[in-house]
Design brief:
Distance between the termini: 17 Å
Low-confidence stretches: 220-232
Radius of gyration: 19 Å
Helix content: 25-40%
Structural class: alpha+beta
Number of strands: 9
CATH class: Alpha Beta
CATH superfamily: Ribonuclease H-like superfamily/Ribonuclease H
Shape: elongated
Strand order of the largest sheet: 4-5-8-7-6
Oligomer: single chain
Order of helices and strands: EEEHEHEEEEHHE
Number of domains: 1
Largest sheet: 5 strands, mixed
CATH architecture: 2-Layer Sandwich
Number of helices: 4
Strand content: 15-25%
Length: 238
């Protein structure tokens, strides 16, 4: 991996219905009276941006996806993987890069504590880079907890990474090292952060986009009382 280049990102945002966890605009087709069938979508635009920058197509795609609950894993994987495949094939027939789909979860109640007081940071938390992938993890699926940051105050909260599909065939150690290493490349901080930067940047892009679309598309309003659900900005795939 070219580490100087891995810090470059291309942001895309798209609005969709409030409380919909599946990203709707990863790939889409529209009919134009003059051009006929027009292909588009966020993944297609990202692939084109990558090709424009590097003059080559990616041979593998590693997707860090935030904002998905466990009950939606299968639906998100089925829909979004299909959209990614269609977007790739729309660029070139037979183009099928290997995909690793990782869900990033921060909303959980799991905490990790050191068993040896000599192996803690100054705040008494576990050291940055600590990984747990046994005992408290899923017995058959590929997931792990990573504490990639140094706690400043209180107890550090690790991030859970759940691999839904891994066509690249990464070992647990390789994917864990990759994820932890990426946490040191966040541009706004001189130290490692708690969430892998692709997911972090996607969150920032979505929040920034809300200032441009106005209150009429804000997700802060109530959807009860029979009112039409408002829209929100979907996070771009990282």
């Amino acid at each position: 991996m070219d580490w100087p280049e891995v810090t470059k990102y291309h942001g895309i945002v798209s609005a969709q219905t409030h409380r919909v966890e599946i990203i709707q605009d990863l790939y889409k087709q529209t009919k134009d009276p003059q051009k006929g069938l027009v292909e588009g979508g966020m993944v297609r635009e990202l692939l084109l941006a990558f090709f424009k920058s590097t003059r080559q197509k990616p041979s593998r795609i590693i997707l860090y996806r935030a904002g998905v609950s466990e009950g939606q894993f299968s639906q998100v994987l089925l829909y979004e993987m299909d959209a990614i495949r269609k977007a790739c094939c729309s660029l070139q027939e037979g183009y099928m890069p290997r995909v690793t789909f990782v869900v990033v979860q921060k909303r959980h109640h799991t905490r990790l504590f050191p068993t040896d007081r000599n192996k803690t940071d100054r705040s008494g938390n576990i050291l940055p880079g600590t990984v747990v992938d046994t005992s408290i993890c899923h017995p058959t699926e590929f997931d792990f907890y990573l504490n990639s940051h140094a706690g400043i105050q209180g107890t550090s909260k690790p991030t859970r990474y759940h691999v839904l599909i891994d066509e690249n065939g990464f070992t647990a150690d390789i994917l864990q090292v990759l994820t932890n290493s990426l946490c040191y490349t966040y541009a706004r901080c001189t130290k490692s952060v708690s969430i892998v930067p692709p997911a972090y940047y996607a969150h920032l892009a979505a929040r920034r986009a809300r200032y441009y679309i106005g209150d009429e598309m804000s997700d802060s309003g109530s959807t009860g009382g029979g009112r039409k659900p408002k829209d929100k900005v979907g996070r771009s795939p990282a």
